[in-house]
């Protein structure tokens, strides 16, 4: 896809006909998926549906057997993993990456340095643009008052926001968040939904999550994967009313709720 085609389709990320298999097991089967600049998209699906594999393929950790991945109009299907961050794609995993003994600000500075690659990370001082970015990010993730506090003293939700901040420090156009509200209180979950909506003004965000309260708060379009196939896409009502989704995913949750 050329830059012109990207403008025509309007997609920041466009995945076409993606098939991925592990030793003959097909984890993704001819998946199409695209997100527009500034969009928040929720990626749902039961365990083993292929959500992580889809994200892993975007960041070059897993290679596709077939299909193409276009980012800002460029085919990145064969771009090595170590180059993907530099292109402006950042993924936050569920496992914490915060350094507990460093302050909030120091963690953010480190993330800003790392985004500059190996040589950039060796620089002792940050450029003005980077320090400005760190000050901006610390406000965005609502940790301004705790900027000098060691990360280990933060509440669980605050640590998750710091991690989102560390992704933001690199200022990537595309952010992928893996269950950002896991373990959060209802109030922290609501604040996280608000934060993600604010961030979507400058970034495109793909969120993998199962928490229906959070998904409702996000008010974003949803893509549902099931057994490696894209089952349904649309707004939350469309997805909720889809019979296949009800039987394979939401139905299961209802049963659990009534158990
Ligand atoms: N490296 C691998 N080798 C073999 N099989 C794998 C590998 N990675 C994933 N799979 C399989 O591919 C399928 C999709 O896994 P994936 O982790 O993408 O699902 P998921 O939707 O992210 O699930 P969960 O919500 O449980 O994280 C699963 O059946 C999984 O066992």
TrEMBL record:
- Which keywords are on file for this protein? ATP-binding, Nucleotide-binding, Transport
Instruction: Kindly give the SUPFAM superfamilies that the UniProt entry links to this protein.
Output: P-loop containing nucleoside triphosphate hydrolases
- Pfam entry (one): ABC_tran
Q: Per the database record, which ranges form the ABC transporter domain?
A: 13-252
Question: PROSITE patterns, from UniProt?
Answer: ABC_TRANSPORTER_2
| UniProt keyword Nucleus present | no
Q: Which GO terms describe its molecular function?
A: ATP binding
Q: Which domain of life is it from?
A: Bacteria
Specify whether Transport is a keyword of the entry: yes
Q: Which NCBIfam families match?
A: urea_trans_UrtD
Q: What is this protein called?
A: ABC transporter ATP-binding protein
